[in-house]
């Protein structure tokens, strides 16, 4: 089951991807409903990104201290 | 010539070791709270695995950092930024460029074929030296063209379409304007791999007459191809022109609508231009060629080659076989990483399109390695090149620049810069392809792993001491 874009031939696995695509690529011709859906999807994406940023930061810290220890132990 | 290249290789490798030692030193200082006295005079060496892991780590971290750039507007601005520098409709300049290219070809052929012909009846032409450091053909092809011009094509902009003497000659001849029944990308790929093979197994960098013969052969094939296909031969089929074209897309200067424009580095790699499997194969072949060139000059390769020949494989087949197998492996790994990356990205776009869009990012890596290999080599040879060009038929005493040891560190920076640029380009492409930013990041997980693996392989190769390839 895919979600089609009504204005071009792109298809999407998730509804939120299509809503985001509409907002980014067809901004000028959106209906009120499509605009609302885009804004909802965008807000949810922001939340996901915040979580992703914490994970990325954690990974950076891990890599940094991992290498610090690796150099300390092996030299 | 080969000697000077080897010497340069050694400087590069020892600087690599020096950088590892520096990193190790920092690690040690941190670990021992700066007890410098206790460690003074004791050599520090980083174990190979840690050195390689650090290289891979740098690439991985640059991926994580670039994934934090989530502002679509900013990414689009960087990609689309153009500043008009001037117009290219200078017929005089183009004509001058073509004349320089033709003159270069004449010099290469004359000093190549006349090298060492002291019995030649015309006194003026009987004094062309065979010494690679004084022969204009060898210096112009390897130092001026393959090192200097190739570097300028990705650091500044691609001038080869104008300079290319064969293209100028084809322009004068009538054309049949036929389409060949084969994919241009694959023809160029096979051509490129053949050129790499010839360069590795033959003493082209030492023997001027052989080099002139090779240039003549290549020229005949190219002009014939140009006559049959027309000017499209150079954008579709000719491996050399396509190498310069591919490198030119990394460059900050480009020609759009007849105007010379400045763009941000790597912006040309984000624009879609790869449109067949053959084109992808060509990009991978360019990358694999650089790796192969270094690989055959290592001790583990020499051991491997002797073992395989000991099993009964004729040495003649060994080099092309490994070239082909390695290329297939590189291409396979890239296509697989895209196919599985597609699943992680949760998209309906097909693998072929994703592979085509992400392939150009690999060119930044290829350019990074090229500049690391050739910048020192080029600077080293500049005085010899100028000397040979001042009087190609009877050059004076040649001298070269001594490259300081720290220069190898600068080369390492180029290798890493190439990878970081590649990661950045892939990030931008992901944002263009996927509506969700999380999707864009996910689509690059596997590709980044492949890049890290590739960094480690290359660092392993360049950190091995030089050993002459056996059976050549």
**Main β-sheet of chain B, in a few words?**
3 strands, antiparallel
What order do the strands of the largest sheet of chain B run in, or round the barrel if closed? Answer: 1-3-2
Portion of residues in beta strands of chain A equals: 5-15%
Main beta sheet of chain A:
2 strands, antiparallel
What is the straight-line distance between the termini of chain A?
Answer: 56 Å
Number of strands of chain B: 3
- Computed over alpha carbons, the radius of gyration of chain A is 20 Å
**Average pLDDT of chain A, to the nearest integer?**
92
Strand line-up in the sheet with most strands of chain A: 1-2
Order of helices and strands of chain A: EEHH
The greatest interface between two protein chains, and residues involved on each side, is: A-B, 29 and 32 residues
Average pLDDT across residues of chain B? 86
Helix content of chain A: over 70%
Structural class assignment of chain A = mainly alpha
Keywords (chain B): Membrane, Transmembrane, Transmembrane helix
Transmembrane segments (chain B): 47-71, 92-116, 136-157, 210-229, 316-337, 358-379, 399-424, 445-463
Keywords (chain A): Membrane, Transmembrane, Transmembrane helix
Protein name (chain A): C2H2-type zinc finger protein
Q: Your description of this structure?
A:
The complex is a heterodimer of chains A (75) and B (472). Chain A has 75 residues and is mostly helical. Chain A has one domain. Chain A contains two helices and two strands, in the order E-E-H-H. Chain A has a two-stranded antiparallel sheet with strand order 1-2. In chain A, a hairpin with a 6-residue loop joins strand 1 and strand 2. In chain A, helix 1 packs across helix 2. Chain B is mostly helical and 472 residues long. Chain B has one domain. Chain B has 21 helices and three strands. In chain B, strand 2 and strand 3 form a beta hairpin. In chain B, helix 6 packs antiparallel against helix 18, helix 16 packs antiparallel against helix 21 and helix 18 packs antiparallel against helix 19. Chain B is globular and about 75 Å long. Chain B starts with a helix and ends in a 9-residue tail after the last helix. About 8% of the residues of chain B have low confidence. The chains are: A mainly alpha (75), B mainly alpha (472). The interface between A and B is medium-sized, with 29 and 32 residues. Chain B: Keywords: Membrane, Transmembrane, Transmembrane helix. Chain A: It holds the Pfam family DUF7410. Chain A: InterPro entries: DUF7410, Znf_C2H2_type. Chain A: This is C2H2-type zinc finger protein. Chain A: Keywords: Membrane, Transmembrane, Transmembrane helix.
């Amino acid at each position: 089951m895919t979600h089609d874009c009504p204005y071009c031939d792109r298809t999407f696995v998730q509804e939120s991807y299509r809503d985001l695509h509409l907002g980014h690529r067809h901004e000028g011709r959106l209906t009120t409903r499509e605009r609302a859906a885009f804004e909802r999807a965008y807000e949810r994406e922001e939340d996901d990104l915040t979580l992703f940023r914490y994970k990325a930061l954690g990974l950076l810290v891990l890599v940094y201290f991992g290498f610090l220890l690796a150099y300390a132990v092996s030299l | 010539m080969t000697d000077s290249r080897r010497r340069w290789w050694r400087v590069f490798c020892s600087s690599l070791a020096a950088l590892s030692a520096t990193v190790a030193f920092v690690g040690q200082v941190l670990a021992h709270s700066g007890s410098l006295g206790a460690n003074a005079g004791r050599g520090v060496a980083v174990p190979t695995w840690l050195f390689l892991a650090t290289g891979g780590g740098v690439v991985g971290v640059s991926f994580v950092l670039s994934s934090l750039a989530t502002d679509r507007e900013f990414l689009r601005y960087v990609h689309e930024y153009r500043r008009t520098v001037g117009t290219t409709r200078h017929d005089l300049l183009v004509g001058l460029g073509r004349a320089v290219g033709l003159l270069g070809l004449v010099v290469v052929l004359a000093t190549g074929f006349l090298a060492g012909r002291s019995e030649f009846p015309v006194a003026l032409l009987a004094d062309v030296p065979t010494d690679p450091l004084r022969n204009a053909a060898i210096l112009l092809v390897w130092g001026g063209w393959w090192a200097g011009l190739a570097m300028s094509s990705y650091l500044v902009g691609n001038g080869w379409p104008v300079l290319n003497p064969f293209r100028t000659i084809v322009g004068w001849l009538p054309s049949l304007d036929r389409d060949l029944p084969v994919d241009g990308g694959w023809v160029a790929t096979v051509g490129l791999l053949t050129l790499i093979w010839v360069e590795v197994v033959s003493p082209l960098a030492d023997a001027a007459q052989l080099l002139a013969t090779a240039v003549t052969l290549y020229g005949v094939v190219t002009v014939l191809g140009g006559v049959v296909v027309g000017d499209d031969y150079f954008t579709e089929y000719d491996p050399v022109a396509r190498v310069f074209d591919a490198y030119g897309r990394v460059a900050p200067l480009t020609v759009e609508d007849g105007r010379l424009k400045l763009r941000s580095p790597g912006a040309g790699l984000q624009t879609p231009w790869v449109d067949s499997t053959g084109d992808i194969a060509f990009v991978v072949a360019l990358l694999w060629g650089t790796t192969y060139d270094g690989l055959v000059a290592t001790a583990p390769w020499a051991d491997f080659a002797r073992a395989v020949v000991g099993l009964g494989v004729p040495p003649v087949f060994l080099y092309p076989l490994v070239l082909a197998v390695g290329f297939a492996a590189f291409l396979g790994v890239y296509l697989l990483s895209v196919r599985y990356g597609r699943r992680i990205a949760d998209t309906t776009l097909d693998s072929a399109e994703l592979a085509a869009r992400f392939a150009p990012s690999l060119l930044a890596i290829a350019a990074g390695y090229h500049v690391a290999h050739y910048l020192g080599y080029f600077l080293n040879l500049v005085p010899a090149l100028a000397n040979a060009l001042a009087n190609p038929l009877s050059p004076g005493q040649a001298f070269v620049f001594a490259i300081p040891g720290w220069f190898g560190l600068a080369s390492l920076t180029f290798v890493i810069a190439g990878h970081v640029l590649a990661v950045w380009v892939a990030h931008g492409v992901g944002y263009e392809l996927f509506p969700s930013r999380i999707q864009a990041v996910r689509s690059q997980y596997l590709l980044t792993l492949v890049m890290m693996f590739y960094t480690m392989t290359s660092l392993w190769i360049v950190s091995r001491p030089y050993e002459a390839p056996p059976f050549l």
